[in-house]
């Protein structure tokens, strides 16, 4: 199961997930000038970040929106970045947040679990229900793939719907979490976690411990650290020890050169080390 590989990397390298939400505007101008065009600079920037951080990071989360926004040329960079991660034996989480009826979901599964845009894990929005996720499950069982389902997101608006109380007393996110937790049981690896995990933002201090307590055996992808305001203390409420999840930081790592004044790859490494130390020290 792919979760066993991720768990092993978390144990060996720490829980940091490097977010490759790479905007052209984040790349230093001198670096862009050294390359044929913006797209090759974009790929080389990603490659340098990966080379500088792979031995101290659990995985890479590649946010497709940043590449889609650049059209076909951007998607080629997305593809090349995923290929590079795979060639180095690392783990890619494709942050695509798809959700659709099953016939369309089948196509999304094909697009992101095989072919040009293949990754190890994908993110899905499960709020369309069980049948919107079913088409992906065969890949989890047979092709060493994994899924992170949005549960309680890091944005302020997550309280608009996800926190609503239903007549049965549960919150909407609990209804969704309980439903998919049962499904996840069938995809457990040797590490005890399932290849179907949840996305839980670390920006809701109050709800974090409740979520961890309710989903004791789930592996979490945790965004919201740093720029969005989540702290290491918030992360620890969700982590369940040192290896119950991975903690994403995108802008905090990609733009670390502005904070440290070093070359961007050197600064990215410094920031991953700082973040890892800050999170693990309190556990
Ligand atoms: O609840 C969620 C789910 C996904 N994200 C994604 O994580 C990164 C966060 O980027 P930062 O620069 O570290 O804030 C981004 O790709 C989001 O789309 C999230 O933030 N919250």
TrEMBL record:
Group of enzyme by EC: lyase
Origin superkingdom: Bacteria
E.C. number(s) listed in UniProt: 4.1.1.23
CDD domains: OMP_decarboxylase_like
Record keywords, A-Z: Decarboxylase, Lyase, Pyrimidine biosynthesis
SMART domains: OMPdecase
Active site: 97 (proton donor)
Pfam families assigned: OMPdecase
GO biological process terms on file: 'de novo' pyrimidine nucleobase biosynthetic process; 'de novo' UMP biosynthetic process
Orotidine 5'-phosphate decarboxylase domain segment(s): 15-264
Lyase in keyword set: yes
Biochemical pathway: Pyrimidine metabolism; UMP biosynthesis via de novo pathway; UMP from orotate: step 2/2
Catalyzed reactions per annotation: orotidine 5'-phosphate + H(+) = UMP + CO2
Any coiled-coil regions, as ranges: none
Lyase as UniProt keyword: yes
GO MF annotations in UniProt: orotidine-5'-phosphate decarboxylase activity
Record-stated family: Belongs to the OMP decarboxylase family. Type 2 subfamily.
Protein name as it appears in the record: Orotidine 5'-phosphate decarboxylase
Organism of derivation: Caloramator proteoclasticus DSM 10124
């Amino acid at each position: 199961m792919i979760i066993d590989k991720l768990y092993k990397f978390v144990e060996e390298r720490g829980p940091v997930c490097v977010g490759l939400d790479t905007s052209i505007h984040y790349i230093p101008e001198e670096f862009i000038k050294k390359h044929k065009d913006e797209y090759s600079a974009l790929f080389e920037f990603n490659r340098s970040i990966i080379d500088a951080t792979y031995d101290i990071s659990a995985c890479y989360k590649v946010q497709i929106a940043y590449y889609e926004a650049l059209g076909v040329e951007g998607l080629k960079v997305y593809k090349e970045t995923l290929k590079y991660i795979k060639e180095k034996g690392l783990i890619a989480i494709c942050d695509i947040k798809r959700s659709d009826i099953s016939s369309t979901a089948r196509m999304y599964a094909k697009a992101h679990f095989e072919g040009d845009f293949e990754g190890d894990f994908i993110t899905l929005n499960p709020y369309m229900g069980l049948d919107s996720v079913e088409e992906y499950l065969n890949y989890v069982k047979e092709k060493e793939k994994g899924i992170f389902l949005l549960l309680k997101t890091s944005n302020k608006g997550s309280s608009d719907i996800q926190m609503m109380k239903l007549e049965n007393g549960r919150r909407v996110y609990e209804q969704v979490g309980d439903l998919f937790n049962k499904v996840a049981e069938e995809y457990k690896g040797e590490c005890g976690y399932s290849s179907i995990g949840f996305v839980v933002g670390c920006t809701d201090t109050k709800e974090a411990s409740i979520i961890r307590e309710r989903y004791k055996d789930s592996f979490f992808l945790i965004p919201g650290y740093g720029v969005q305001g989540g702290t290491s203390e918030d992360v620890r409420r969700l982590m369940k020890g040192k290896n119950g999840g991975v903690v994403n930081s995108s802008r905090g790592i990609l733009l670390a050169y502005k904070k440290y004044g070093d070359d961007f790859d050197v600064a990215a490494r410094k920031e991953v080390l700082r973040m890892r130390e800050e999170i693990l020290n309190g556990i």
